[in-house]
UniProtKB/TrEMBL annotation, chain A:
The chain crosses the membrane at residues 12-29, 49-71, 91-116, 197-217, 244-264, 284-309, 347-368. GO terms for cellular component: plasma membrane. It comes from Primorskyibacter flagellatus. It is a multi-pass membrane protein. The keyword Cell membrane applies. It comes from the Bacteria. This is Branched-chain amino acid ABC transporter permease.
Automatic annotation (TrEMBL), chain B:
GO terms for molecular function: ATP binding; ATP hydrolysis activity. Residues 4-249 form the ABC transporter domain. This is ABC transporter ATP-binding protein. It comes from the Bacteria. SUPFAM superfamilies: P-loop containing nucleoside triphosphate hydrolases.
Length: 394, 254
């Protein structure tokens, strides 16, 4: 189907089904029950799942295929967000020009950063990208205040030009009149399912991005990218120039990041400099590795897992812990809560760090490898995913 | 005039004169061996030929065109392929994928952006890769992870990849280093067959005299960065200067 072989079509269909039915799958527990705490089917979170999915899919084209580890991809995400908000300020709240411009601007920005950073490989490349992203963050935070509105963040004001705005036009982001924040709420018995417009726009774009990434993986270009990771010496002595291939991969992944940034701004028309901070760049690295770098579906799994855990663990407060551990005798309960509270709420990053270490040590291939091991355990033939080692390029 | 003309090439590394006044002419469609004791400058010369090193003075002409100042991939696209001492292959990829990369490099040049079409639907590439694997007896290892093959198979794959590019000059850097005698003989037979089947010039750097005397039509002896003699194998064997400089130190296997 669509020029894919049977296995890839199956993967695409599974991801499509998950995306379409996410509002149901993620709200497994009745709305008023105790376990509703673990539900994730509300618009803001579902949008973040797919937006960061797009970010990680793009990052995987660079890191998973060529092995070049960029620590600066959040800069492209941030640039995309700024571009989108500027479109809202100058034209109107339609998301189409905003999303298109965010991809274009991030693409141009990544040509410049990539062209310079790719003069080095391995760890020096990573450090160069990190430095560029940090520079972008600092510039956005202070020097470029007229463009970025500094620490307040860029947002739309009533006195902005908005030249395409008609009287009585929409005052929130919309797709030709369809407001992003509009939603359909369906109650089935005690269950409640929310179907938001914004989420479905993001999901469709995520599926398109995923489809393009599968095509890239299976193309001659994708083969060359894997050749770069495997052996650059053989590549040059086979008459191939690795430079333009790596730069093309860098720019493509930068454009994916720009799309993700544009979507973030389209869901909530605000762009702040902290989106470009190095922790945001680190997050996409963790997502990709946690899911399985170099695999097709890994980045999506990684992005979903991290955003879900972030949501669940960061909202566990001490009150909730007291309720959960109430069955313990007091002298046990206090120390247990003291320990657990360090890993939840504000401290959920500690949890993430631990989980990341566990996966890297036990499952170097990420969640995809975990899935394959389980399949093998049940005597099924594992999916022969085209994944290779996760070491950065030399 | 030969297909490869090296004239007055000098190369210094700090105080060490690695190559001094090297003149070498390799005739088209010949098998030319370059031998010499350790430190004679064989590898330096090879690195000059493929563009990895730029000599201080002198010229290197391939088919009348200078190779100096060109990058290794440009020189490769001119028609010079190199086989390494330790086989350099794409270890993470399958044997078939290795072959296909070489076929793509031949068809599409140093860089082409084909990001959407499926590589398995490039019929001509797939067929050519399969043919090459077949002719090298690697067809049954098609789907194998190439890093997990034996050293002999890796060597054959590397040679196959070079041949897929239809080079006019094939450079081999000690192709039998570290091989058992049986594997060495197989490699000799393979190279003989390659020579028989096509118009190709082969330049070979080798330590193993058995390999050199079984293959070479001309031999250049390099010592201390400068060519000592160049002659046919028969004359080289008996040459007093060569015996003194080189063969005298080694057991002659032939």
């Amino acid at each position: 189907m669509l020029g894919l072989n049977r296995k890839d079509t199956a993967i695409l269909l599974v991801v499509a089904a998950l995306a379409i039915f996410a509002p149901i799958i993620l709200n497994l527990f009745p709305a008023r029950s105790e376990l509703a705490f673990f539900n994730a089917g509300y618009p803001d979170l579902m949008q973040r799942f797919v937006i960061f999915g797009i970010f990680a899919i793009g990052f995987n084209i660079l890191f998973g295929l060529t092995g070049y580890l960029s620590f600066g991809h959040a800069a492209f995400l941030g640039v995309g967000s700024y571009a989108a908000v500027w479109m809202f300020k100058l034209l109107n709240y339609n998301v189409v020009p905003a999303i298109l411009l965010s991809i274009v601007v991030a693409g141009l920005f990544s040509v410049v950063i990539g062209w310079i950073s790719l003069r080095r490989s391995g760890i020096y490349f990573s450090i160069l990208t990190l430095a560029f992203a940090e520079m972008s963050y600092r510039l956005a935070y202070s020097v470029l205040t007229p463009l970025t509105n500094g620490e307040t963040g860029l947002q739309v004001y009533t006195d902005d030009p908005q030249v395409l705005m008609q009287a009585g036009g929409h005052i929130v982001p919309h797709l030709f009149g369809l407001e992003m924040r509009a939603r359909e709420v369906i109650d089935v018995g005690p269950w409640q399912f929310v179907f938001p417009v914004g989420y479905y726009l993001c999901a469709i774009l995520m599926l398109v991005s995923f489809y393009i990434s599968i095509r890239i993986f299976r193309s001659p270009f994708g083969l060359m990218l894997r050749a770069i990771k495997s052996n650059q010496t053989r590549m040059t002595y086979t008459g191939l120039n690795p430079k333009p291939y790596t730069l093309a991969a860098f720019v493509i992944s930068g454009m994916y990041a720009g799309l993700a940034g544009g979507l973030l701004a389209s869901m909530d028309p605000l762009a702040g400099a902290e989106r470009m901070q190095w922790t945001a760049s680190g997050e996409v690295v963790i997502m990709t590795i946690l899911g399985g770098a170099g695999t097709l579906i890994g980045p999506i799994l990684g992005a979903g897992t991290i955003k879900y855990l972030e949501n669940v663990f960061s909202k566990m407060n001490e009150g909730l812990l007291h309720k959960w551990f109430a069955f313990l005798p007091d002298w046990v309960e206090s120390p247990v809560i003291w320990v657990v509270s360090k890993f939840t709420g504000e401290g959920w990053h500690l949890m993430l760090g631990g989980l990341f270490m566990l996966v890297i040590i036990a499952l170097p291939g990420g969640l995809v490898e975990g899935g394959q091991r389980i399949m093998r355990l049940f005597g099924r033939k594992p999916k022969a995913e085209t994944r290779t080692s996760t070491e950065p390029a030399e | 005039m030969g297909i490869l003309e090296v004239k007055n090439v000098n190369k210094r590394f700090g105080g060490l004169k690695a190559l001094s006044e090297v003149n070498l002419s390799i005739a088209e469609n010949s098998v030319h061996a370059i031998i010499g004791p350790n430190g004679a400058g064989k590898s330096t010369l090879l690195n000059v030929l493929v563009g990895k090193l730029i000599p201080d003075t002198g010229s290197v002409l391939f088919d009348g065109q200078s190779v100096l100042g060109r990058t290794p991939y440009e020189i490769n696209q001119m028609g010079i392929s190199r086989v390494f001492q330790t086989p350099e292959i794409f270890g993470d990829l399958s044997v078939m994928e290795n072959m296909m990369i070489a076929c793509f490099a031949k068809r599409d040049g140093a860089f082409t952006m084909q990001a959407i079409g499926s590589m398995m639907k490039e019929r001509d590439i797939v067929e050519k890769a399969e043919q090459m694997l077949d002719s090298m007896n690697l067809a049954d290892k098609r789907g194998m992870h190439s890093a997990s093959m034996s050293r002999g198979d890796k060597r054959r794959l590397e040679i196959a990849m070079c041949l897929a590019q239809e080079p006019r000059l094939l450079l081999l850097d000690e192709p039998t280093a570290g091989m058992a005698r049986a594997d060495t003989n197989n490699t000799i037979d393979l190279l003989k067959k390659i020579k028989q089947d096509r118009d190709i010039t082969i330049a070979i750097i080798e330590h193993d005299m058995h390999v050199v005397f079984s293959l070479a039509e001309r031999i250049t002896v390099l010592a201390q960065g400068t060519p000592l003699v160049e002659d046919t194998p028969e004359n080289i064997k008996g040459h007093p200067k060569v015996r003194e400089a080189y063969l005298g130190e080694t057991q002659v296997a032939a």
